Give the backbone structure.
Amino acid sequence: MSNKEASGLQRLKTIVQTKKPTFLISLKERFLKSSWKVKLIVLALMVGLSFGAWKTFGRPNQTEITYETATAEKGTLISSISGSGTITSGNYTNVTTKTSGVVTKVYVTNGDTVTKGQKIAEVELDDYAKERQSGAWVAYLEAKEAHLAAVSGKSEADIAMWQARQAVLDAQDAVDDMNDNDTNPATNEVYTDGERAIIDKTLTQKREAFSVAEAKYQNANADIANASTKVAAALRDYQENSATIAAPAAGEITDLALAEGIIVAASSTTSQTSGATIVSAQTVGKVNDPNGQLIATVNLTEIDIINVKANQKVTLMLDAYEDKTFTGKVMAVNTSGSVSSGVTSYPVTILLDSVSVEIYPNMAVSVDIITDIATDVITVPFSAVQTLGDQSTVQVMRDGELTNVTVEVGISNDSEVVITSGIDEGDEIVVSTTNTTSTGADDESSPFGGSSFGGGGGGSGFSGGPPGGF
């Protein structure tokens, strides 16, 4: 490269490194040459843009915590278990028939006292009724046969379960002997690792076999219960299709709608799914037993049944009397239970106190079984108690400050819990906490330290004269 070329290259580098962009020089020159009014407007725009950016992006969100509190109060807490079921024995029982034909004889009148099964009337059946009666009898015999098979199946399941239970006991004895002694009595030698593994595995297998046998036994019990229900229903259906109309219960005859010579005819419909004819029973009278026992049956889960005992008080509500509440007590608890679709349920029999309204079998009922009552105790809302492991705590608001307090809890229900120690009556307890997050849009404080840009009462907010140059 010649000296002339090197000199030119060096000059070009100097220009690139030192020369400012032309458009920046132009803007600066124009701004410096402009009037003070133009300079003021430009400066105001710059400040406004900066303030807007701060309003939108510059301030952090603010979180406000709100506490909902309740006062620890002294009172009574009732713990109960809820369930639903049906009335199995009412104080009024309908006299019904599914037969059709001419009434040939009436044996009773209104006001007469009858015993269960006593004849009320005779009917000369028409051909259709005779056919239904024959079919009902066949269905009854089939139901009885199925019941006998279920009973036989239960006996086999019972034997299998006890054999499996004994096998578990024998296997457990073998494990105990192995743990207590180093020598195998069968070989008179020290147990090998393989022998120990086999003995342990045998116990596991026998336990599994017992669980299977126990489940089959429970299913067999359920099969018997279902079969018994079907037998009773088949017998009732046969009786309702019989030429003899009988009293379904003992008591006083009321509302009898039978007389010799009249025609009785039960209504019938055709099933849209199976095409079978469904005959609806016709009510021809009632039997009132004012001294009879009103009984309800409800099914409870295995979680609830362990807390239910005989003679516990019960409150009941019937769909037929939505505005009334009835009372009663637990008569019996069936601890055998039954299994259906893998779910175990336990029937509880409840005796209702005497009532002045008509209650019929199969009416729907909902119950609350009172399992425990605590009086003169401190209670707080259930949501106020936080439990971790064996320790329960509540948050107490004292002088505007929150304090975590360890407490001892007693019985509870769906809404409240008893506190036996840790807090006093009248303490303010935190029930729930709400966090409300707000943006800075509502905060009117200025990023420049004041609510305005300074200045006097009039003018643009800038004090003094026009701004100076750069």
About this structure: The chain has six helices and 25 strands. The CA atoms of residues 301 and 343 lie 8 Å apart. Confidence is low (pLDDT under 50) at residues 441-470.
